[in-house]
Specification:
The structure is a homodimer. In chain A, helix 4 crosses helix 5 and helix 7 runs parallel beside helix 9. In chain A, a hairpin with a 4-residue loop joins strand 7 and strand 8. Chain A is globular and about 65 Å long. In chain A, strands 2-9-6-5-3-4 form a six-stranded parallel β-sheet, with helices on both faces. In chain A, strands 7-8 form a two-stranded antiparallel ribbon. In chain A, about 50% of the residues lie in helices and about 10% in strands. Chain A folds into two domains: about 170 residues, Rossmann fold, CATH 3.40.50.1970; about 200 residues, Dehydroquinate synthase-like, alpha domain, CATH 1.20.1090.10. By secondary structure, chain A is an alpha/beta fold. Chains A and B meet through strand 1, strand 2, helix 8 and helix 9 of A and strand 1, strand 2, helix 8 and helix 9 of B.
Amino acid sequence: MENFDFHVTTDIRFGKDRLAELPEVLNQYGKKVLIVYGGGSIKKIGLYDKVMEQLKTNGNEVFELAGVEPNPRVETVRRGAEICRKENVDVILAVGGGSTIDCAKVVAAATKFEGDAWDLVLQRRKYQGGALPLVTILTLAATGSEMNSGAVISNLATHQKLGTGSKSMLPKVSFLDPQNTFSVNKYQTAAGSADIMSHLIENYFKRTEGTDVQDSVSEGLMRSVIKNCPIALKYPDDYDARANLMWASTLALNGLTGSGKPGAWSCHPMEHELSAFYDITHGVGLAILTPRWMEYALNDETVDKFASFAWNVWNVEEKVPMLAARIGIQKLYDYFKTCGIPMTLPEVGINEEKFDEMAKQAIDHSTIKTDAFVPLDEAAVKEIFTACLTESSFE
Amino acid sequence: MENFDFHVTTDIRFGKDRLAELPEVLNQYGKKVLIVYGGGSIKKIGLYDKVMEQLKTNGNEVFELAGVEPNPRVETVRRGAEICRKENVDVILAVGGGSTIDCAKVVAAATKFEGDAWDLVLQRRKYQGGALPLVTILTLAATGSEMNSGAVISNLATHQKLGTGSKSMLPKVSFLDPQNTFSVNKYQTAAGSADIMSHLIENYFKRTEGTDVQDSVSEGLMRSVIKNCPIALKYPDDYDARANLMWASTLALNGLTGSGKPGAWSCHPMEHELSAFYDITHGVGLAILTPRWMEYALNDETVDKFASFAWNVWNVEEKVPMLAARIGIQKLYDYFKTCGIPMTLPEVGINEEKFDEMAKQAIDHSTIKTDAFVPLDEAAVKEIFTACLTESSFE
């Protein structure tokens, strides 16, 4: 296990009907609030009205940044920061999923940043400056953004989708009411769960030895997702299924499973290129890539980790490590399929045309060539992309 | 899953050789430091000198509260609070295991409390007042006190050992260097691991349904302890084994496995009476009680949870739930025995003489009669105590 810091100060308010606590939370920071949200689903489910009622009664002055995209764009960040500066906003309230929260984080920082918002994103994890305080109300179990300091922003003009973040972007308070995810449709529920699984898998498959705590926590969270996603797909209003997915999404990426295990993630850098070039749903891209990446990464040196994944996550009974490993990969693939996720790139409108360009950028924008579980060069990325063109079988 | 808050702001500095960070941490609060420690083992391992060197170079004015007992006593708390008030101490530095940290927490609060320290303890979890800032350097993987707001204090005069706590008692920063546990002897290593296991088991066996995330995280942490404690017993300097035990101890009781699962713990209230009357090692008392409590609590209504414990924690292959449950309990019992823990009360100097009195107090000092996984009355507690008089077999 490597040295690490764990300091995650977000105040989580988990559970049913806790919006009455919102005014007291916001009043710590001031009365001028920028509410950030996406395409309007929060209006459909009545959440927007409930929030606005609390803000009105509380005497807040409210500004709005609406229409945050599923892969939030730097133009939207710029627009939000402009409002915050012009109106002297005191606190940002993000109401939505990971995209909305990510956008709000970078708005919060860009407001304090002298320079263009994209230059802030280009600092990646090195931004040390301040940010406006951020409060979130989560409506989708997926990215874990509600309890971490990272954000991903897209620049369609340059075909770039880049991770950024700073201590100052960590949400102060996050409201996690599973009821707010009852209306999430099957596709987004499955894609969100695939995103959670991917975060756990990315942290699980690292080179650091002796991390039983992190890995067994990851295994447990994976088992929770595997059990509860199908329940939520069948019974969208099942509170406990939604609650388990929501809390798993938060814990999957709040540092718990990655601390003490340095090294690059493998599938996210590849997926970021798919959605930077084709604007596909992030979780779907990850679901398509992950089993093919696993097949690429499985070899005599890595087999033990893949066998553990098969035994401890999927209860595979096969005792021969290499055979067990392959069964585990197959189970993951089949699971995603059963959840209704399209499992080939052509199904989401992607063909081989830009594989070279995307593979090059995946290497340029990350450290997977040196720091990944199994180092990946351009040829490897292209090989993995190519394997995603057709249905696969791993056993 | 029930509603819960999760807000654990302790800044964890995990890993090797990080004491150079100590001055900067302490300087946030001031120069006058009360260093709190136990029986001198920190001097034997050279940690005391290393800490003092940092404090000296940093120009700290240092006061000492030495000799904190394994079950810290209210008299020691009073002594510490008196020093803090008289010397206007700015920050408390606890160097030791859970007892030392618990004592330091209540010293920190008692300094700000108008009244006797025992009256503060008697407020249990209701104390809302302030406390001096607390920084900890952990030397024993066991109680989890390094990242939570609770403390247990004993009053030998009244035969009381009571839990207390408040938000203000949460450590600000905790240094977790596994190397500081290399010298922990076999007995204390095993007892500490039993304490970790007990925290996980207490949170696991609750009545709340639909808590897969919490439970699967608990299962993972239990598996980590079960794997790593025997390694640490055989190779006391195995860094990864010590690191996994240390991080498991912290996560076992920082809210992660208990949030959303209200209800009383079962074995701790019983054990607190054993150590209040006989001053035995807490973890050993828990190890003795837990399998017997399990046998008492196992019935047709609770069998599913015990079977899950057997399957997911101990990899029991038996498919019949009641049989699997019994095998799981046996495995826990055998595991503690293998770790060298004395598994009967007579071995730690306790006979049936005070069973009635202790059973009565266990009920009086807790809510196990109404809120435990299986409600326990005085007769039940006495039955469990009695089962601890001789070796047991559960299958």
